[in-house]
Each structure stands twice: as C-alpha cells, then as structure tokens.
Amino acid sequence: MRPTAFSRPGKFYRGNIHTHSTQSDGALDPAEVCRRYKEKGYDFISLTDHFMGTYDYPVTDTRPFRDGEFTTILGVELHSGANSLGEIWHILAVGLPLDFAPSNSPGNDPLPDQETGPQIAQRAVDAGAFVAIAHPEWSGLSEADMKSIESAHAVEVYNHGCEVECDRASGLHAADILAQSGKRVSFIATDDAHFRHGDMDAFGGWVMVKAEANDPDALLNALKDGAMYASTGPEIHDIEIDGDEVRVKCSPAEGIAVLGQTASTVGAFGDGLTEATLDITRLKDSPWIRVTVFGPNGKRAWSNPIWRDEFCL
Q1: Is residue 134 located within the same domain as residue 20?
Q2: With a threshold of 0.85, does the pTM exceed it?
Q3: CATH no. for residue 259?
Q4: How far apart are CA 292 and CA 74, in angstroms?
C-alpha cells in the first residue's frame, strides 16, 4: 500500500501556500512576490493576503502572473471570531473565489457579532477552498480551538515566518493531538512570508503536491485529497507499507523515522541515507503512523498521517 501522494499519477510540484503582499501587510507587490518564488524554482504559490476590512477584504488576483512554468492559486488568510485566548482567528483558505463574501472583520480585534472561526472556515470550504489551521503554536491554540475547526483539511506543521521572527514555528504537536482525537488532517509547511526583512522569512517551508499538471484546479484537488507532503528541505520519493514493514525512499538524509500515537518510534540513521525498511510491529496499536525524514542542517520533511484502516498490518 502506498499513501495517496505516492500512489496517484502525476509528479510533485513545489509550492508555498501562505504568503502576503502589499495588498495587506506585506512589503512587496503581488507581481514581485510571484517573481521571486518563480525565480527560486517554485512551481506555484497561493498569495494569501489578510481578508479584513483594514485592507478592503482582498482576494489578490494573481492570475496575470501565471505562465507555462509557474502558476498561482487564489487564496486568503481569513479572520473572524475569537479563539480561546480572545484573539481573532487565522485560517488559511486556498482556492477561494474572487467573489467570496466578506465577513464583518474590520481589523485584528474580534467583534461579538462576527462569524465564529468554525463558521467562516466552513463557509470557505463550501465555496470550494482548501482550509488549514494556521500557525497553531504562534496563535496559542488550545485543543478545543483546533477541534472546533471541523472542516479543516490541514494544519500548518511548520511556519517559516514564525520560526525566524518568534521561535513559534511548529504545529506538529497540535496536528498529533487532532490525529489522536480521530481527526484526519494533512500536514503543510509554509513561509507566511511578508518580506519585511529581506528574504529572511521566505523560501523556508513548502508543500510538495502530487498532481497530473501544474494547474490551479489540479493542484487544489490534490491538496484536498491529501496528495502532498510538507518539507523544509528533504524530498520524500516513496513510502510503501507491506505487512509489518514501511519502506521509505528519500533524498540523502541523516535519518528516517516512523511515529505513531504513542511515544514508540522506529528509525534508521546514517550519513547519506536514501532509503530504509523499518519494522513497525511496535506501532501495531497505533491507529495511524507518519514518517519524518531528517535532512542535513536540521531540515525536515513530514508525511501526512497514514491511517490503519487504509492499510493492513
């Protein structure tokens, strides 16, 4: 058995799906943001400006910057309602239509008559978007907060802007908590780049999406299907589960580990490791497993959780 990202036809396309421009609080205009990502070898981007009244509720139109090598998916960062800390929600919506109706979200402070976070997330999904819980560590989200966004497709497990600006980059623990509760969410890594400090907050986290074409609709459908993995550097070439074994192939790495719901893990480590076959018998009681690839210089790649009822141990 191979997870969706490695079994479906097509090829992997590299993209960043959380970034800002001068349409909200970013330092660069949309054309320059897209140019820089194309120059760095990205296949696509979703420019997700802040969808609030301060910026006139922008769904930044990046369609003019598409060409035969580079494409864009329309998107926003939604804000509405208060989380458990009393702060406004941050929710990614990738693949949102240009005519998505604004919420009553004039600024960064939540209001009593706004849509809740779960409500605006569901409305985005109903409009055709891929929805993700943004930077849960930076936001200080509680377990109840995360579980409330029932329509979410994914969680940011790495946010590069949060890494370089405030050391609150990880969403892995949050995503594991959701998986432990039975919620099937994918993993994404993003930049959340604003380019306010040069390129410091850019080009550090991305998704590798498996699709048959570098086309906005194909990429969006693949994201919704979970046909991707998250990375800050390493590539995952294949994952195959056969009985009690998991076989992983990847770019040269320092380690490959399989994790589950409990503290038990299995792994292989060594310089220039490009594949490993791991016995996962000790994870037999976990309803899901996931793979981490440890690359050089502290870089990581993460598979989505793979659920027990999708394979047979």
Answers
A1: yes
A2: yes
A3: 2.60.40
A4: 30
